[in-house]
Write a structure and sequence with these properties.
Length: 185
Amino acid sequence: MTPSADSLIEAAKAAKTRGTPPLEKWNPEFCGDLDMQIKRDGTWFYQGTPIGRIELVKLFASILWREGDDYFLKSPVEKVGITVEDAPFVAVDFEAEGAGEAQQLRFITNLGDVAEAGPEHPIRVVRDEETGEPSPYVLVRRNLEALIDRKSFYRLVDLGVHCGGWFGVWSGGEFFGIIPSEDLP
């Protein structure tokens, strides 16, 4: 690993022992890009090789920061750019409690983060302009999202209802539209 990656690992380890790192308070200098990538399936790569140690991935994820469409690993003293193919996390499962407007959906990511969909953790669906294929996301933390995996999305659709001209789901007292009702067969 480069000296930059080593110092980021140390910053992440130190931050983890004190709880959630206060990334909002850190304003380090940009130090360039690191050869690190997060693929659409949630696999993290360093210099073209998958990072196999989940604890190391979790450490990096703890200092992941997003500004606009750009992603960074951020410590108190440096900020390095990384590439994210789609979303940095994948929602691999969810639990549903209640029904209708009282329903609560609790998503879990590939790294063990939990997000209860609602006003603070909205669900959004982007449809491909050419194919109409949906890409569903849930906000996990800060402004970092998880792509909802296919099996979970199909389960989500099974819970869907029509409301205000949209087909979607309720969670945390809020309705999240998936597709306009008129677009359904």
